[in-house]
């Protein structure tokens, strides 16, 4: 093995604070995952959301194994995924808070098959579960998009460095 000439200062992944800080360097979209499976509205916020595939149309999100909401949401025939708009940071906190108050003062949009959406969000995706994959202390959930509405004029909310941010448009040279 050769001796590195110039090496970064690396720390072991057993340092949870360093790992959390590294993860926070990568910006992510913030979404609400909501449904009404017949027992009333359920919802949660998720920040590890990404697009996956065009054919079939897939997106993914990660859910903590300790979530008490996901086991109830996963039984819904359709899940509503709403990409939060830049001014909806308060709604994210609300949907991440106590379950009994997640929909206080929100008049969500609901489809006949039970998908629930946050109004004025940048994107609404009506999804079915495509696959669930155990992934450490989370479950990687692949969702198949069945139908959608997108408003490219609405700037999304971004989660970066453990805070919510809005995008800034500027030329990169």
UniProtKB/TrEMBL annotation:
Q: Give the top-rank taxon of the lineage listed in the UniProt record for this protein.
A: Bacteria
Keywords, alphabetical? Oxidoreductase
Output one GO MF annotation. Answer: riboflavin reductase (NADPH) activity
Gene3D superfamilies, sorted: Electron Transport, Fmn-binding Protein, Chain A
What residues does the Flavin reductase like domain cover? 23-166
Q: Which family does it belong to?
A: Belongs to the non-flavoprotein flavin reductase family.
The name on file for this protein is Oxidoreductase
Q: Which organism is it from?
A: Gordonia jinhuaensis
